[in-house]
Design a protein that fits this description.
Length: 208
Protein backbone atom coordinates (compact mmCIF):
# COMPACT_ATOMS: atom_id res chain seq x y z
CA UNK A 1 0.00 0.00 0.00
CA UNK A 2 1.04 3.56 -0.56
CA UNK A 3 1.94 5.58 2.52
CA UNK A 4 1.85 9.33 2.13
CA UNK A 5 2.57 10.21 5.76
CA UNK A 6 5.47 7.88 6.51
CA UNK A 7 8.02 7.64 3.76
CA UNK A 8 11.69 8.49 3.59
CA UNK A 9 14.68 8.61 1.32
CA UNK A 10 18.14 7.21 1.62
CA UNK A 11 20.78 9.21 -0.28
CA UNK A 12 21.34 6.35 -2.71
CA UNK A 13 17.64 6.25 -3.60
CA UNK A 14 17.96 9.14 -6.01
CA UNK A 15 18.82 8.30 -9.62
CA UNK A 16 19.27 11.68 -11.35
CA UNK A 17 20.84 10.34 -14.54
CA UNK A 18 19.01 7.06 -15.18
CA UNK A 19 15.37 6.04 -15.02
CA UNK A 20 14.79 3.53 -12.22
CA UNK A 21 11.64 1.61 -11.29
CA UNK A 22 11.38 1.54 -7.50
CA UNK A 23 9.07 -0.27 -5.08
CA UNK A 24 8.88 2.22 -2.24
CA UNK A 25 6.67 1.24 0.69
CA UNK A 26 6.38 0.55 4.40
CA UNK A 27 5.81 -2.79 6.13
CA UNK A 28 5.30 -4.22 9.58
CA UNK A 29 8.02 -6.31 11.22
CA UNK A 30 6.18 -9.46 10.17
CA UNK A 31 5.96 -8.44 6.53
CA UNK A 32 2.55 -6.87 5.96
CA UNK A 33 1.92 -3.57 4.17
CA UNK A 34 -1.68 -3.31 5.39
CA UNK A 35 -4.22 -5.12 7.51
CA UNK A 36 -6.61 -7.60 5.94
CA UNK A 37 -9.10 -4.78 5.31
CA UNK A 38 -6.37 -2.56 3.79
CA UNK A 39 -6.01 -0.51 6.96
CA UNK A 40 -2.94 1.66 7.61
CA UNK A 41 -3.77 3.05 11.04
CA UNK A 42 -0.84 1.13 12.53
CA UNK A 43 1.61 3.10 10.39
CA UNK A 44 0.75 6.73 11.10
CA UNK A 45 2.03 6.90 14.70
CA UNK A 46 5.50 5.79 13.57
CA UNK A 47 6.54 8.97 11.75
CA UNK A 48 5.49 11.98 9.67
CA UNK A 49 6.34 13.22 6.19
CA UNK A 50 7.93 16.43 7.50
CA UNK A 51 10.55 14.32 9.30
CA UNK A 52 11.58 12.35 6.21
CA UNK A 53 13.05 12.84 2.74
CA UNK A 54 9.78 12.02 1.01
CA UNK A 55 9.48 15.33 -0.89
CA UNK A 56 12.98 14.83 -2.34
CA UNK A 57 12.08 11.28 -3.35
CA UNK A 58 8.85 12.38 -5.01
CA UNK A 59 10.66 15.13 -6.92
CA UNK A 60 12.62 12.40 -8.73
CA UNK A 61 9.44 10.51 -9.74
CA UNK A 62 8.03 10.99 -13.23
CA UNK A 63 5.28 8.35 -13.17
CA UNK A 64 3.41 6.38 -10.52
CA UNK A 65 1.89 2.88 -10.65
CA UNK A 66 -0.52 1.48 -8.07
CA UNK A 67 -3.08 -1.24 -7.63
CA UNK A 68 -6.81 -0.79 -7.15
CA UNK A 69 -6.71 -1.43 -3.39
CA UNK A 70 -4.10 1.29 -2.90
CA UNK A 71 -6.13 3.75 -4.97
CA UNK A 72 -9.34 2.90 -3.12
CA UNK A 73 -7.59 3.48 0.21
CA UNK A 74 -6.73 6.97 -0.97
CA UNK A 75 -10.35 7.57 -2.02
CA UNK A 76 -11.59 6.44 1.40
CA UNK A 77 -9.07 8.59 3.26
CA UNK A 78 -9.08 11.89 1.38
CA UNK A 79 -9.26 13.89 4.62
CA UNK A 80 -6.12 12.19 5.92
CA UNK A 81 -4.31 12.61 2.60
CA UNK A 82 -5.31 16.28 2.50
CA UNK A 83 -4.01 16.85 6.02
CA UNK A 84 -0.66 15.22 5.28
CA UNK A 85 -0.03 16.52 1.76
CA UNK A 86 -2.20 19.61 1.35
CA UNK A 87 -4.23 18.03 -1.45
CA UNK A 88 -6.81 15.26 -1.81
CA UNK A 89 -4.55 13.89 -4.56
CA UNK A 90 -0.88 14.30 -3.63
CA UNK A 91 0.71 13.59 -7.03
CA UNK A 92 1.26 15.89 -9.98
CA UNK A 93 2.77 12.95 -11.86
CA UNK A 94 0.62 10.80 -14.16
CA UNK A 95 -0.60 7.77 -12.22
CA UNK A 96 -1.51 4.40 -13.71
CA UNK A 97 -4.03 2.45 -11.62
CA UNK A 98 -4.22 -1.27 -12.41
CA UNK A 99 -7.80 -2.46 -11.95
CA UNK A 100 -10.39 -4.84 -13.35
CA UNK A 101 -13.19 -2.73 -11.88
CA UNK A 102 -14.66 0.62 -12.83
CA UNK A 103 -13.37 3.21 -10.35
CA UNK A 104 -14.11 6.93 -10.00
CA UNK A 105 -11.51 9.48 -10.97
CA UNK A 106 -10.43 12.57 -9.03
CA UNK A 107 -10.98 16.05 -10.44
CA UNK A 108 -7.74 17.61 -11.66
CA UNK A 109 -5.68 14.42 -11.26
CA UNK A 110 -3.94 12.67 -14.16
CA UNK A 111 -5.12 9.12 -13.39
CA UNK A 112 -5.10 6.42 -16.05
CA UNK A 113 -6.99 3.21 -15.34
CA UNK A 114 -5.38 0.19 -17.00
CA UNK A 115 -5.38 -3.60 -16.99
CA UNK A 116 -3.40 -6.34 -18.64
CA UNK A 117 0.34 -6.72 -19.09
CA UNK A 118 2.49 -4.67 -16.71
CA UNK A 119 5.24 -4.78 -19.33
CA UNK A 120 3.15 -2.95 -21.90
CA UNK A 121 2.00 -0.33 -19.40
CA UNK A 122 5.55 0.09 -18.08
CA UNK A 123 6.69 1.02 -21.59
CA UNK A 124 4.13 3.82 -21.70
CA UNK A 125 5.18 4.98 -18.24
CA UNK A 126 8.82 5.17 -19.32
CA UNK A 127 7.90 7.43 -22.23
CA UNK A 128 6.12 9.83 -19.88
CA UNK A 129 8.66 9.67 -17.04
CA UNK A 130 11.54 10.77 -19.26
CA UNK A 131 14.73 10.81 -17.16
CA UNK A 132 12.84 10.57 -13.87
CA UNK A 133 12.00 7.43 -11.93
CA UNK A 134 8.91 5.24 -11.88
CA UNK A 135 7.39 4.67 -8.45
CA UNK A 136 5.75 1.26 -8.01
CA UNK A 137 3.65 2.43 -5.05
CA UNK A 138 1.91 -0.84 -4.22
CA UNK A 139 0.47 -3.10 -3.32
CA UNK A 140 2.68 -6.12 -2.95
CA UNK A 141 1.08 -8.28 -5.63
CA UNK A 142 1.44 -5.58 -8.28
CA UNK A 143 5.06 -5.00 -7.25
CA UNK A 144 5.62 -8.75 -7.60
CA UNK A 145 4.18 -8.67 -11.13
CA UNK A 146 6.65 -5.92 -12.06
CA UNK A 147 9.41 -8.08 -10.56
CA UNK A 148 8.23 -11.16 -12.47
CA UNK A 149 8.46 -9.16 -15.70
CA UNK A 150 12.03 -8.04 -14.90
CA UNK A 151 10.98 -4.40 -14.54
CA UNK A 152 11.76 -3.68 -10.89
CA UNK A 153 15.19 -2.16 -10.22
CA UNK A 154 15.10 -1.21 -6.54
CA UNK A 155 13.11 -1.68 -3.36
CA UNK A 156 13.10 0.96 -0.63
CA UNK A 157 11.33 -0.58 2.34
CA UNK A 158 10.60 1.06 5.66
CA UNK A 159 10.07 -1.46 8.42
CA UNK A 160 7.80 -0.30 11.23
CA UNK A 161 8.33 -1.48 14.79
CA UNK A 162 4.94 -3.21 15.02
CA UNK A 163 3.52 -6.63 14.13
CA UNK A 164 0.12 -7.25 12.55
CA UNK A 165 -0.17 -11.02 12.69
CA UNK A 166 -1.92 -11.14 9.34
CA UNK A 167 -2.72 -8.82 6.45
CA UNK A 168 -1.62 -7.90 2.93
CA UNK A 169 1.93 -9.22 2.30
CA UNK A 170 4.85 -6.98 1.40
CA UNK A 171 5.96 -9.17 -1.51
CA UNK A 172 4.11 -12.44 -2.22
CA UNK A 173 6.97 -14.17 -4.04
CA UNK A 174 9.88 -16.40 -3.03
CA UNK A 175 13.21 -14.69 -3.74
CA UNK A 176 16.27 -16.72 -2.74
CA UNK A 177 18.91 -16.97 -5.46
CA UNK A 178 20.16 -14.44 -6.08
CA UNK A 179 18.92 -12.49 -3.07
CA UNK A 180 18.27 -8.78 -3.19
CA UNK A 181 21.46 -6.75 -2.70
CA UNK A 182 21.38 -4.43 0.29
CA UNK A 183 22.63 -0.93 -0.56
CA UNK A 184 21.95 1.01 2.63
CA UNK A 185 20.27 0.96 6.03
CA UNK A 186 19.16 3.93 8.08
CA UNK A 187 17.07 4.64 11.15
CA UNK A 188 14.10 7.01 11.00
CA UNK A 189 13.17 8.13 14.48
CA UNK A 190 12.42 5.36 16.95
CA UNK A 191 9.80 3.56 14.89
CA UNK A 192 11.18 2.91 11.40
CA UNK A 193 14.23 1.38 9.75
CA UNK A 194 14.72 1.93 6.02
CA UNK A 195 16.35 -0.75 3.86
CA UNK A 196 17.35 0.08 0.29
CA UNK A 197 17.91 -2.84 -2.10
CA UNK A 198 19.05 -3.34 -5.66
CA UNK A 199 17.05 -6.13 -7.30
CA UNK A 200 18.69 -8.77 -9.48
CA UNK A 201 17.61 -9.29 -13.06
CA UNK A 202 16.43 -12.56 -14.57
CA UNK A 203 19.41 -14.84 -15.14
CA UNK A 204 21.53 -13.29 -12.39
CA UNK A 205 23.06 -15.82 -10.00
CA UNK A 206 24.42 -15.14 -6.56
CA UNK A 207 28.23 -15.46 -6.36
CA UNK A 208 29.47 -18.75 -4.95
Amino acid sequence: MIKVAVTALSPTALSPTALTTQYYTATSLDGFVATEDDGLDWLFPLGAAKDTGYPAFLAQVGAVAMGASTYEWMLRNTDMVLEESGSVWPFTQPTWVFTHRELPGIDGADIRFVQGSVKEVHGRMMEVAGEKNIWMAGGGELAAQFHDAGLLDEAIIQIGSVTLGRGKPLFPRRVTNPPWRLLSVRQIGSGLAELHYALPRAGDVAPG
